[in-house]
Design brief:
Blueprint lengths: L1 H14 L4 H14 L10 H26 L7 H30 L5 E6 L3 H12 L6 E7 L15 E3 L4 H8 L3 E4 L6 H10 L6 E4 L12 E5 L2 E5 L8 H35 L5 E7 L5 E7 L23 H8 L7 H7 L3 E3 L6 H7 L15 E3 L1 H4 L9 H16 L3 H17 L6
Parallel strand pairs: 1-2, 1-4, 2-3, 4-5, 10-11
Antiparallel strand pairs: 6-7, 8-9
Length: about 425
Amino acid sequence: MLTVIALLGAAWLTRGHIENKDLVLGLVAFSLGYPGSLPYSYRPAKLLRQIFGNWAVLCGLMVVFGLATDMLKAFPPNTLAWWVVATPVLQAAAHVIAPWLLPRVLSMRAQHTAVIIGANELGRTLARSLISQQALQPVRVTAFFDDRAPARLGDELELPLTGRIDAVADFVRANRVDQIYIALPMASQPRILRLLDQLRDTTASIFFLPDIFLYDLIQARVDTMGGLPVVAVCETPFHGTTGVIKRLSDVCISLAAIVLTAPLMIGVAIAIKMTMPGPVLFKQRRYGLDGEQITVWKFRTMKVQEDGAVVRQATRNDDRITPLGRFLRRSSLDELPQFFNVLQGRMSVVGPRPHAVAHNETYRKLIKGYMIRHKVKPGITGWAQVNGARGETDTVDKMKRRIEYDLEYLRHWSLQLDLAIVWRTVVQAIRGDKNAY
């Protein structure tokens, strides 16, 4: 939203009025930047890096869009210049002021009083979350209720244990409790039904926290199916509007990359043809979206082309890799043809890196949740790669670490995260990646 405000302000400052084309450009910028990924609290240096890095990549996307649609020349250069400068300044100022301003504004609201039924792991997790964000939450949680004795509850509780579950209704009526959170396991259905019956003559809002949320969920959300409530335990982040935004960013980034690197790709192709016999491109079967097999293109870096039931991973000082291939791998230039895979819709610019089919069949049996990474299209780069989880996975633990990063990406996806990963990938490619061989 600050991006749109900065654009409209720049238009008013430079032209004295706002035109329809400003609103269209603002809508495009908002769509590309939604939803935001910067947390409420951030260290200043990291905050500035994230803001200016994300904005630089977003500006690059919009320049490509403007050139492709011939819309760039419709805007005065001074308007665009003011906008480019004002947007990151406004965003940085908002993040600096927000931690000071928000608690004061929110303290003016009437706060609701809440209690938690069940001092188990789920209830205590909720209590810690509400207490840590109390300045931002309209809820003040005051007590636990549980049938177990304090000695059985382990460590010191975050809230006082006020009584047993059958005392909740009387406590709620006597203390004007506004909200009740039931964190009892689903196996306790008789107790839950009895409690709900006792609370019928109170005005408190009642929320049930099913214990499935103790499991490792991917994009969990509540929806309806056939008029009945359902909980998504494992779902792709790319549905509806987010799917359109993801695809639009993929097309813009891949087109820009192909245009900018076309001379480089031609040069690499000629160099490969001159230094080794055989094809320029290496094609290998990988798993794509929903586990469907796709063919991925790369510049050939090895003397051999393995795509059978057994595929040996590249290792340090691997004699199959040519001298030119070693340079292409370290600089990630061998990945450039995959931008054509992105345009085909087989891959995404950012996502879990695709593994050879033979490797997939091995690791899916060894690592729990391995195939969840195929809920989205594979990427040219990914969260695991920019965090150093790249190269040979000669132990199962190394592959587990890579999968943990992939699943974290699925849980927390946003366009800003994608842009940040692209930016870090470019920086790593320029510096050279010691884990690529």
